[in-house]
Amino acid sequence: MTDDGRPLPLTGRPLPFTGRRVELERLRGGLGRPGCRGVVITGEGGVGKSRLAVEFADEAAAHHRTVRLPVSEAASHVPLAAFAPHLTGPALTGELGRHFQELRNLLAAPAGRPRTLLLVDDIHHLDDSSLALLSALATDAATAPAPGFFLVATLPQGADWPEALRALWHQDAVEHLRVGPFDRATTARLLAGALGAPVTAPAVRALWEAGRGNALWTREILRAAVREGTLRPVDDVWCLTGPLDDTLLDAPAEGRFRGLPEDRRTLLRLLALCGPLGLADALARVTPEALAALEEEHLVVVTEDDRRSRVQLAHPWHALLLRRGTPRLLARALLLEQAGRVREYGARRHGDALSLARWELDATGTADPELLVRAAGHALDDGDVDTMCRLARAALSQGPHVVAGLLLGEGLGQRGEFTESIPVLERAFDEARTPGEVESAAAALSQHHLYGLGDALAAFGVLDRAAARIGTRPVLTACRAGLLSAVGRNDEAAAVLALAEGADPKPGGDGGGAWTQADVLLLQAHLRVRLAAGRVDEAVRTGRHAYAVQSGLADRWTAYYPARSLYLVAAALLESGRLDEAERTALEGQEAMRDAVPALTVWFAWVRGRVALERGLVADALAHFREARALARLCGQPFAEQRALAGLVLAAAQTGLVAPETEALTPVRAPASPPASEAAAPASPHAPEAAAPDPAPPPGAAASGPSHAPDADAPAPVPPPYSPLCQTDTLRAHGWVRMLRGADGPARELMLGAARAALARGEATVATALLHDVLRWGSRGPRAEAGAVAAELAAATALVQGSLAEVRAAHAAAVAPPDGPDPAALEAVAERMGALGLHLYAAEAFGEAAGAWRRRDRAASAARAAARALALRGRCQEAATPALAGAATAVPLSARERDIALMAARGRTSREIAETYVLSVRTVENHLGRIYRKLGVGGRADLADVLLA
Prior knowledge:
Blueprint: H1 21-32, E1 38-43, H2 49-60, E2 66-69, H3 96-107, E3 116-120, H4 128-143, E4 149-156, H5 163-170, E5 174-178, H6 184-195, H7 201-211, H8 215-227, E6 231-234, E7 237-240, H9 255-258, H10 262-274, E8 277-278, H11 279-283, H12 288-296, E9 300-305, E10 308-313, H13 316-324, H14 328-345, H15 352-364, H16 369-382, H17 385-396, H18 402-414, H19 418-431, H20 435-453, H21 456-470, H22 474-486, H23 490-497, H24 517-533, H25 536-551, H26 563-575, H27 579-592, H28 598-615, H29 618-634, H30 638-653, H31 728-740, H32 744-760, H33 764-777, H34 783-797, H35 803-815, H36 823-835, H37 839-855, H38 859-873, H39 882-885, H40 887-890, H41 895-905, H42 910-917, H43 921-935, H44 940-947
Parallel strand pairs: 1-4, 1-5, 2-3, 3-4
Antiparallel strand pairs: 6-7, 8-10, 9-10
Helix pairs in contact: 3-4, 4-5, 6-7, 7-8, 10-13, 10-14, 14-15, 15-16, 16-17, 17-18, 18-19, 18-20, 19-20, 20-21, 20-22, 21-22, 22-23, 22-24, 23-24, 24-25, 24-26, 25-26, 26-27, 26-28, 27-28, 28-29, 28-30, 29-30, 30-31, 31-32, 31-33, 32-33, 33-34, 34-35, 35-36, 36-37, 37-38, 41-43, 41-44, 42-43
């Protein structure tokens, strides 16, 4: 049981069997080939050789007699122990002839039956007599006219093959099947199957790296992590709550080290405490022969890193076990001795400062403050938030230090500890003396107020205080613009930046010179503003520029993480209609973080959910949004949690369901919206009469107090205009929920009002998404209303770059004609949408086209368009939107006709279809003729185009 009373996963049962489809196919193929006498499965310990062999034997048992030999290391000293259970009398080495005949009869296939399968797990543990007997049986089976038996044997990687098996392999009668570790995707499926719920991407990565894809190691690490609470479920998604480094495993491996000579054991302890060491440092402890012996025993590995040979432990388990077994005073002496060696070298290599600070802090509890701050900066570069906080806190314990305060405050904010981070940053702000220190502290403090507490007025107040001390400076300008854009005042943000069409900031400002952290923040502000304004292709270029510049900076304690630009680039690529690039960029961002930066991991899961939703993969989108919400709740990020929650509700709505989580959404109502031709006058973010925004509700808050569900009759109060919670996702989610609950008028009012208000604030990207949703819902009123929505969407898309805006504009044009939607134009739009990977949009457009053809009494064209809609809907997992509702009824095929049509479209012959349904070939041909006439197609090729689009 875990500490909180939950049962441990996998207790008393194995891991789910997964990820071995290719290997199973190899085994099946061998069993099915008469010339193949067996397969030898090899691989390192724990990868699943035995499990693969057993699963195959269990599967084969349905048609083949199976015989399993009980083999073990303990029984390897007992002659014929493995064969004894299958012999009628005692197993005697002097009666091998009698035993041979008896086993030959046992393994012979019965008349008319397939050959027997013989499973020998760990065949290297067979005693000499058993090997001799098995060799004789194999040789006899290879020459006998009867089918004989099929051998499945397992061997550890590198073990000597028994001579009989080697001879059969040389004769090409036995295949060699190598089984390797799992890749990360397979590990993710394995973990989800074992835990019964999805696992976040950072947790999968950590568990995969710790277990190195080895099934046995992964199982033990998983059990230990759950037992100690390092891995726990948050909203039914399993998340890591800390590093796996200190997870205590139930691994009986300590005995491997006790028998080693003292010098070798000391080297292993040093590697466990200090991490990888240079080859020279390792050879200062042991002889080359001793180091080679440790490598041969798979206790250490030697790698090449930047033209430098480095020695490290072969597995993270060993590090934990060795650290746990090293006496405290010995550990202290080893750490300080290694720190002294590095100082003798001059401590010039990258990472030396971080190593020295950690070793000295571990050994003595303190270190030089400047060293600690430099080391915390290196931990920041590595994305190691916990180490950054520890080192910065140690530096501050020795006295005030502005940079240490900035680093600690940032790390605490990443972990959601804003009640501590804000006082730390306030002290750093007060203690700052140089303009650079003031603006760096102001930048961090303002963002913590806005994104941590939802307090926009406090955030802008910090920037005002900083400007009063040091005047207007680039970092303050970038922060003000970024915050204005975040709270929905993109027009003001653009004015602050004096945004020039297509222009990016230059290094060092107008004066030229090297790139700085201020330049990165300005680039990121331009990225945000351009993304919101619809200049998405420019945003992509600017974001990639920001990432490249920031990755090359030596100091990042103002701009922090380069990967932050990548999730915004992915969002811009999505809005541009470049879905594949958006997905690749999101994955690139996840990989760019060597360790999981808590708050930042949320946004990559969120943007992947957005990409999946645009593709129509609503089930995948739900999984990504649930992961993002769980991560946000885990690390205390209310702003990110609301965005993920809104995405989850929006994705669920596009399956035709109102998600239970809807009640936790931030309440909104339709904002006062001017006509599309008017622009709302922007209010000052510093107006004294502006109400302070409500902070985001804490996790679970929706469960208590009155419900804030969207209600057509009683609109809920809306957060103040400067709340970061008034976001597109939230508005869209509320609109879809109202529509599903039958409040069609209020839903449209909310979405149209929000779109017009967004346009007035310079947020064309937001407006096009909102207006396109309304267009997708279809017309419920007079024709003029539908035309008006289409006209507004066309005007909004004219402000937005990229292919997505283009197809939305084309969609608007196709539904705009006064006499009703143009079905041919809708089909053309659907084709373009499908080419972009927007399969749900394409299916909806074909569904609209089917309705338009039907209204024109073009039944065959309507059926063909509806069939295309249903075929595309099949790619969209569980999608069920209003535009798809009529597509199924528009296809005039019976269930039998549809099944036959699909089989024909997939290339099955009429005879094959007839055999499947027990019909005559002529009946199948008659069915197909009626299908062609109903769908208005000429034959099988056209049928495939319609049904398998």
